Amino acid sequence: MFCPNCRYEYKPGIEQCPDCGADLVKKLDEPKLAVEKESKFVFLCVAQDLVSATLIKETLEFNDIPCLVKSAGGIMATLEPLSGQAEIYVPEEKYEESRKIKEQLVNGL
Ligand SMILES: [Zn+2]
Q1: What stretch(es) of the chain map to CATH 3.30.70?
Q2: Would you state the CATH architecture of domain 39-108?
Q3: CA-CA 20 to 30 A from 64: which of 8, 58, 72, 94?
Q4: 37 alpha carbon to ligand 1 midpoint, in Å?
Q5: 12-40 confidence digits (pLDDT tens)
Q6: From residue 10, how far is each of 30, 36, 85, 100 by CA, in Å?
Q7: How many angstroms is it from 21 CA to the middle of ligand 1?
Q8: How many angstroms does the Cα of residue 4 sit away from the middle of ligand 1?
Protein backbone atom coordinates (compact mmCIF):
# COMPACT_ATOMS: atom_id res chain seq x y z
CA MET A 1 0.00 0.00 0.00
CA PHE A 2 1.26 3.48 -0.90
CA CYS A 3 0.46 7.02 0.11
CA PRO A 4 -0.37 9.04 -3.03
CA ASN A 5 0.94 12.22 -1.37
CA CYS A 6 4.11 11.11 0.41
CA ARG A 7 4.79 8.21 -2.01
CA TYR A 8 5.85 6.03 0.92
CA GLU A 9 5.11 2.34 0.97
CA TYR A 10 3.21 0.87 3.95
CA LYS A 11 2.40 -2.62 5.08
CA PRO A 12 -0.79 -4.22 3.75
CA GLY A 13 -3.67 -3.64 6.15
CA ILE A 14 -2.83 0.00 6.80
CA GLU A 15 -5.55 2.06 5.13
CA GLN A 16 -4.47 5.60 5.86
CA CYS A 17 -1.14 7.38 5.77
CA PRO A 18 0.11 8.01 9.32
CA ASP A 19 1.85 11.15 8.11
CA CYS A 20 -0.79 13.00 6.11
CA GLY A 21 -3.97 10.98 6.68
CA ALA A 22 -4.58 10.30 2.98
CA ASP A 23 -6.20 7.04 1.93
CA LEU A 24 -3.52 4.62 0.80
CA VAL A 25 -3.65 3.18 -2.70
CA LYS A 26 -2.46 -0.18 -3.96
CA LYS A 27 -0.38 1.28 -6.74
CA LEU A 28 1.17 4.67 -7.31
CA ASP A 29 0.49 6.32 -10.63
CA GLU A 30 3.33 6.14 -13.09
CA PRO A 31 5.34 9.31 -13.35
CA LYS A 32 3.79 11.53 -16.01
CA LEU A 33 6.78 11.43 -18.32
CA ALA A 34 6.68 7.66 -18.65
CA VAL A 35 2.97 7.69 -19.48
CA GLU A 36 3.46 10.22 -22.25
CA LYS A 37 6.37 8.27 -23.64
CA GLU A 38 4.30 5.12 -23.98
CA SER A 39 1.19 6.69 -25.37
CA LYS A 40 -1.43 4.18 -26.31
CA PHE A 41 -2.23 3.93 -29.99
CA VAL A 42 -5.84 3.65 -31.04
CA PHE A 43 -7.36 2.65 -34.36
CA LEU A 44 -8.20 5.63 -36.56
CA CYS A 45 -9.31 4.29 -39.92
CA VAL A 46 -8.67 1.88 -42.76
CA ALA A 47 -6.90 3.19 -45.81
CA GLN A 48 -8.08 1.46 -48.97
CA ASP A 49 -4.78 1.61 -50.78
CA LEU A 50 -1.18 2.73 -50.63
CA VAL A 51 -1.95 6.20 -51.92
CA SER A 52 -4.55 6.92 -49.21
CA ALA A 53 -2.38 5.42 -46.49
CA THR A 54 0.58 7.54 -47.52
CA LEU A 55 -1.55 10.65 -47.76
CA ILE A 56 -3.07 10.15 -44.30
CA LYS A 57 0.27 9.28 -42.73
CA GLU A 58 2.05 12.27 -44.23
CA THR A 59 -0.75 14.66 -43.31
CA LEU A 60 -0.83 13.44 -39.70
CA GLU A 61 2.92 13.68 -39.38
CA PHE A 62 2.82 17.15 -40.90
CA ASN A 63 0.49 18.02 -38.00
CA ASP A 64 2.96 16.55 -35.48
CA ILE A 65 0.90 13.42 -34.89
CA PRO A 66 2.98 10.25 -34.95
CA CYS A 67 1.08 7.37 -36.51
CA LEU A 68 1.42 3.67 -37.08
CA VAL A 69 0.43 1.98 -40.31
CA LYS A 70 -0.42 -1.68 -40.01
CA SER A 71 -1.04 -4.11 -42.79
CA ALA A 72 -1.43 -7.86 -42.78
CA GLY A 73 2.35 -8.01 -42.35
CA GLY A 74 2.33 -6.05 -39.09
CA ILE A 75 3.68 -2.63 -38.22
CA MET A 76 5.84 -1.18 -40.92
CA ALA A 77 8.67 1.27 -40.68
CA THR A 78 8.05 2.41 -44.22
CA LEU A 79 5.17 2.09 -46.62
CA GLU A 80 7.21 0.49 -49.37
CA PRO A 81 6.02 -3.14 -49.19
CA LEU A 82 2.39 -2.24 -48.67
CA SER A 83 -0.31 -3.43 -50.98
CA GLY A 84 -4.00 -3.51 -50.29
CA GLN A 85 -5.64 -2.16 -47.19
CA ALA A 86 -3.79 -0.65 -44.28
CA GLU A 87 -4.95 0.33 -40.81
CA ILE A 88 -3.91 3.67 -39.40
CA TYR A 89 -3.32 4.04 -35.66
CA VAL A 90 -2.74 7.29 -33.76
CA PRO A 91 -1.96 8.12 -30.11
CA GLU A 92 -5.08 8.07 -27.96
CA GLU A 93 -4.66 11.68 -26.84
CA LYS A 94 -4.41 12.81 -30.47
CA TYR A 95 -7.41 10.83 -31.66
CA GLU A 96 -9.94 13.68 -31.92
CA GLU A 97 -7.43 15.87 -33.72
CA SER A 98 -6.49 13.04 -36.06
CA ARG A 99 -10.11 12.24 -36.82
CA LYS A 100 -10.78 15.85 -37.87
CA ILE A 101 -7.69 15.93 -40.06
CA LYS A 102 -8.66 12.63 -41.65
CA GLU A 103 -12.23 13.80 -42.30
CA GLN A 104 -10.97 16.97 -43.94
CA LEU A 105 -8.72 14.85 -46.10
CA VAL A 106 -11.51 12.50 -47.15
CA ASN A 107 -13.82 15.42 -47.93
CA GLY A 108 -11.11 16.98 -50.04
CA LEU A 109 -10.61 13.89 -52.17
ZN1 LIG B 1 1.09 10.52 3.32
Answers
A1: 39-108
A2: 2-Layer Sandwich (3.30)
A3: 72
A4: 28
A5: 899 999 999 999 998 887 655 544 556 78
A6: 18, 28, 52, 47
A7: 6
A8: 7
